[in-house]
Specification:
Number of strands: 5
Strand order of the largest sheet: 2-1-3-4-5
Order of helices and strands: HEEHHEHEHEH
Oligomer: single chain
Structural class: alpha/beta
Largest sheet: 5 strands, mixed
Helix content: 40-55%
Number of helices: 6
Length: 147
């Protein structure tokens, strides 16, 4: 039985919580294909000392390796926060079929650079605002604890 966008986003939130617990910016991502989670990731920028170790990038790499393919037209990415421009570029090249994100990121999200222009592959569907409050709350709690 297929899960809903909200149920899959709960899985991405569980990944974000792992990042939060490890003092990483709490972004979590999963990639789903044929109603099956094929990749899970969370930010590991601090742990790996790598500014490109965003949840989306790590999830994409896992999915590519799992499938033995560089394209994901039949997959859906669930990510707790609006992807940044770097991740949007990687998602473009992956030709991912659908992107579902939780909360907007006015400071670092792709819309800061792209405005209302879509940086994704023309066939990629985009859905935002799934579990928005929960996703935003985790980010707010993380940064509030550091100020």
């Amino acid at each position: 039985m297929a899960m809903t966008d909200e149920q899959y986003m709960q899985q991405a939130l569980a990944e974000a919580q792992k990042a939060f617990d490890r003092e990483e910016v709490p972004v979590g991502a999963i990639i789903v294909m044929n109603n099956r989670i094929i990749a899970r990731a969370h930010n590991q920028v601090e742990m790996l000392n790598d500014s490109t170790a965003h949840a989306e990038i790590l999830a994409l790499t896992t999915a590519f390796n799992f499938l033995g393919s560089k394209y994901l037209p039949d997959a859906t990415l669930y990510v707790t926060v609006e992807p940044c421009l770097m991740c949007s570029g990687a998602l473009y090249w992956s030709k991912i079929g659908k992107i579902v994100y939780g909360t907007d990121d006015e400071k670092n999200g792709y819309r800061k650079c792209c405005g209302n222009k879509n940086p994704y592959h023309p066939k990629t569907k985009l859905v935002s605002g799934i579990l928005k409050e929960e996703c935003a709350g985790l980010m707010k709690d993380f940064f509030k604890a550091r100020r």
